[in-house]
Structures are given as C-alpha cells and as structure tokens.
Specification:
By secondary structure, this protein is of the alpha/beta class. The protein contains 8 helices and 16 strands. Strands 9-10-12-11-13-14-15-16 form an 8-stranded mixed β-sheet, sandwiched between helices. A 5-stranded mixed β-sheet has the order 2-8-7-4-5, with no helix packed on it. A 3-stranded antiparallel β-sheet has the order 1-3-6, with no helix packed on it. The termini are far apart.
C-alpha cells in the first residue's frame, strides 16, 4: 500500500513537471520560430534634388505579418525614434545618413540599416523638379532671404503693387500652395511662397517675407497661411510696419496672442475659411476668432467636408475656395 502511494505521488509530481517542460518548450519554439526581423530594405532616392524625399521600409520576420513589424529611424542622428514604414524627410542640401531598425512584436530587433543620401542643388529651378504636379506657374523668381537667424528659400511670382505672403502648414512644403498660386497671380497679385526653417512656420518668417515683397514694389500687402501657417501669418501682423492690408486665414487655430491681435488691429481686413468637418481644427476655434475680430471688414466662409488647410485647394470645393480668396483680395486692392 505504501509503495502504491509513493508511486502515485511520484506520478502526480512528474506529470505537472512534464507538462511545464512541454509548455515551456512550445513557447520557446514559438519564440524561436518568430525570430528577429531582417535588416530593413529601404526604397527611395540616394541622390536627388528633392529636399523632401520619401523613403519606404520593409522587413520580414518568421511567423510575423509585415504589418505587425514596427520601425525606428532617424536622419543624421544616432538616436532612433518611432516612425512609420513610409517617411518623408525635410533635408537641406548636402550629405545625410538615414538609420533604420525593424522591431518585431516580441521586441526582438533587426540589425541597423544605413542609407547615405545626397541632396544636390537643381541645375534649373528647384521648384520645377519637385512641383511638376499640380505644378507652379512658370516665371517665378527664386529668392533667399534672412529670417530668425537663418536664410529662407522662397519663390516670388507675378508683378504689380499688390501682393501676398503665404506660410505653409505644419510639416508642409513649398509645393503645397501650387494649386492656389496660379489663380492669385492671374488676379494681379505678386505671391511669395517659402520654405519654413522648421516644420512649424513662425511669425518672424512671414514678416521677413513681407519685406521681400515690399522691396519688389508691393504697397498693398496681405499675409496668409494654412493651419499653423495661418497662425504664423496672424501673429506676424504686429511685426510688419506699415501694417499689412489684410489676412487670409485658412483652417487656423485660435491662440491667446492671435485673439488679442484681432481684437486690437482694427484697420485690417480678415478672411477666415474652414471646412465644417475639419478634424484637426474645431470650427468653434475659427468662430471665436471671427467673433473677437474688432474690424468691420471681416468674413467667415465655411465649406462642407473634412479637408484641412491646403487640402481645401484639391477637395471638392477647390474652385470655390480659390475664387473666394481671389475675389476677396481683388476687392481690396483699390
């Protein structure tokens, strides 16, 4: 009886141990089967005149769907940050290094991929290369001007005594305004678009651009922008002397300083435009600005849809948006 009890006890002990070993083995095999992701392959230009090139990453890991693999990358830095499988960089002329590492769901990492990139100056107009579609009008004059401790690149179009400086939206580029520039030039205005020094344009840059147009003979000056560029344009108003004639504010935010400006700068004309379903900027933001604006020359136009910023120029109401801005500006040239 005692032997049977001991045997049963030994069997009871061995059984869970055996199961634990088997389970551990299966987990270990599963982890091994998943494996570390392969070093990412990188598609995208190595030598280009485009200062905003796009790169795509691809990696494989056994037993892992490609969509489950994440990436860490950086440009010109050893410190990697989370990034998507498709990134668009904003690079200056010269040589750069792109670093990419893939990470599997089980946190195993790939070896590091290094890509050396060279951004060259275009032999012809740089904007002709990067903005062929939808395309900027021909005849633009490239300008380089100082602002906030750096030098900015811009393109000036048109001629005459009236003009507008347009500030890009967050992480935008000089090409974003292409759909609007042609119609504004056709309306008889000079138009200056420029590359912001960082991903977020600032008021000092817009004010510097205003100086460029003033030197080009503009006496009736407007400032404008999209999203954060609209905020920069609004906040540039106190920095410009004499004051600009008006503001074109496309899908912008209301800020404390911006509200203060529109409450006190009563000599300007203000045009606010936004889509009612804008998922980035809530419409009440724009309504607050409109209601705070002390000038009697103010207008708010709301469009159906969800387009934000310069996307309004390519959305279903693009013609109406361009016509609205052009008509509004022309009406204030006299």
């Amino acid at each position: 009886m005692e032997r049977a009890t001991r045997g049963t006890l030994a069997h009871k002990i061995r059984t869970p141990l055996l199961l634990a070993v088997l389970v551990f083995g299966v987990v270990a095999i599963g982890a091994s089967a998943a494996g570390a992701p392969s070093r990412p392959t990188v598609s995208g230009p190595r030598t280009t005149t485009d200062t905003t090139p796009t790169y795509r990453f691809h990696s494989k890991a056994r037993g892992v769907a490609a969509a489950k693999i994440s990436y860490r990358c950086s440009f010109d830095s050893a410190k990697l940050r989370k990034c998507k499988a498709k990134v668009t960089a904003k690079l200056k002329l010269g040589k750069h290094v792109l670093r990419v590492r893939a990470v599997a769901p089980n946190k195993t990492k790939s070896s590091l991929a290094l890509v050396r990139i060279t951004i060259k100056k275009a032999k012809k107009r740089g904007y002709a290369v990067s903005c062929r579609s939808p395309g900027l009008p021909s005849g633009g004059t490239e300008v380089v001007f100082p602002a906030v401790g750096t030098r900015l690149y811009g393109i000036r179009f048109g001629s005459g005594s009236a003009g507008i400086v347009l500030a890009q939206q967050y992480q935008g580029n000089i090409c974003n305004w292409a759909p609007a520039v042609r119609s504004l030039v056709a309306s008889g205005l000079q138009v200056l678009i420029y590359e912001a020094s960082t991903s977020s344009p600032v008021a000092e840059e817009v004010a510097a651009g205003a100086g460029v147009l003033r030197k080009a003979g503009v006496t009736t000056l407007f400032v404008g922008g999209a999203s954060m560029g609209a905020v920069a344009a609004l906040e540039s108003i106190p920095l410009i002397s004499p004051r600009p004639h008006g503001l074109v504010f496309l899908s912008g935010y209301s800020t404390e300083s911006g509200l203060d400006i529109v409450a006190h700068e009563t000599s300007l004309a203000y045009l606010y435009l936004i889509a009612v379903g804008d998922g980035v900027v809530p419409v009440p933001d724009t309504l607050q600005l409109m209601n705070t604006t002390a000038s009697s020359d103010k207008k708010l136009v709301e469009y159906p849809g969800t387009e934000h910023g310069v996307a309004l120029f390519s959305g279903p109401y693009s013609s109406q948006v361009k016509n609205e801005i052009g008509t509004w500006l022309v009406a204030r040239l006299s």
